[in-house]
Known about the structure:
Largest interface: A-B, 32 and 38 residues
Oligomer: heterodimer
Strand content of chain A: over 45%
Number of strands of chain B: 9
Number of helices of chain A: 0
Helix content of chain A: under 10%
CATH class of chain B: Mainly Beta
Distance between the termini of chain B: 36 Å
Shape of chain B: elongated
Amino acid sequence: MIKIRTKVPDTAAAGDVITIKVLANHIMESGHRIDESGNLVPRKIINKFDCFLNDKVVFGCDLGTGVATNPFFEFRVKVEKSGVFKFVWIDDDGSISETEKFIDVV
Amino acid sequence: MKLSRRQLLANTVSSIGLLGTSNVFATPDDLAAALKAIAGDGEITTGPLTLSLPEIAENGHSVPVSVSVDMDINEQNFVESVAIFAPENPNLTVLTFNFTAASGEAFAATRMRLARTQNVVAVAKLSDGSVISDTQFVSVTIGGCGA
């Protein structure tokens, strides 16, 4: 399980456009690097990130090997009512990391 | 063991060659093909898309980048995706942001790798089918090798 940090405002007014920041601790090994013994280090990256609000996708990203180590995203979402944000990160090896954050919309 | 100048030179050259083998860089044809995959036969125009990158990136391992499309987002009219291409990286496509009508504002920021000095290209696809692009030149001081 990778370490994930998310920053979502606790409350917002209906119709507000809020800013969300997410960060995953991940090596993002590109598969182009050569180690000390001359062998190619196999690729291991997070290849997909999705943000759900009440089980509906609101923002996503398909990552390539050009995304820096410890991928970070900042993006905006318009909120109309209270709900749960779910952040899903999918690794090359198939493992999935999920975190959830509740937002109170008044 | 003391290396002679000749041996040292030979070792250096061979190790550079070794590093070079894995870094097969993208070609201009790759970019053209990628753009065609997004736009089809349609025209790519300049529009309200802004790609923001530093003019000089001191460290190519982590370069802050953001994209934004300056338009009103609603259910009928929104940004579908924004792709970022780095033609001088080993892999052309850096990432693709998938926006929705709920995005509120078509803005996203992240950090990318740049192998060397180059023109970075962003291409946005809007829900009405139009495709717009923006290009930004970035000088890279230390390349993020193996991007």
